[in-house]
Amino acid sequence: MIPPAVADTAQLASAGSPFTTAVCGLAPSALSRTKRARREHPAREFFRFGDALGRRPALRPVRTYHRDMSATPPAPARTGQVRLVRDIVLVCAAPLVLAGFGLGHPGGLRPHNAEHWAAMHIWLLPVWPLLALGLVVPLRGRPRRDAVGAATVVAWVAGFGYAVYYTGLDAVAGIGAGIAEQHGGEQRRRVVNPLFHTGDALGQAGVWCLTAAVVAATVALVLRYGARVLPGTAVLLVCCWSFFDSHIFHPRGVVTMLGFALGFALWAVAAARPAKARTGAGDAPA
Fold this sequence. Notes:
mainly alpha, 2 domains, about 65% helix, about 0% strand
């Protein structure tokens, strides 16, 4: 059997094929036609050198592929659409979940709803940090040593600060205060009120970090994609202002979370289109 990797007569001879003598006497033009046919039809099944010899040797058919045909690349337009849908789902999932929880969030902490209050904030504990995905997804990629990279790092650090501090609010004023209200007895307010005070301070710090992250991300995205990211920024800044005292309380807190979903989705759509041309060494778009 002729090895699949054999491409010319010299290789055939070195491989010790039984058809070496016949191939060595083959006209050069016939060999050229055979090679050209293999190049033009890389996925076609054929008997190697069979047609050129005028007879079909007793070999098994070999399916040959062009070395660059390992996989058929997907259509670019379809790939871009799938990536856009994926990004929108990633950035909108957390705010939509928070809006859903907000519809059932108690308006105030009382003994009769203390258990529900604490349980809800336990469920929300892993969700609050995921709101920062709206900052991470549009800024994906390794930061460069330029203005875009610096703004990206600032946005990521500020987003991390939001995730830490606002999760602290959930743990202190949500879980801790709920359990204290449920089991504190007559003196429960002496414990709950300081917990609320500490939780509010953590929440304020978290929202300030989120606002700084939105501003820094806007700088990076404008330098990458131009002014088309500004509508999303406007929505997000309004939501940050509302987030300072709305939490996810119905109705304003729910609307605030829906606004975050809208703003992050607008950013994802803007970042899905090609980046604007950048000049300078090392400034090629990612």
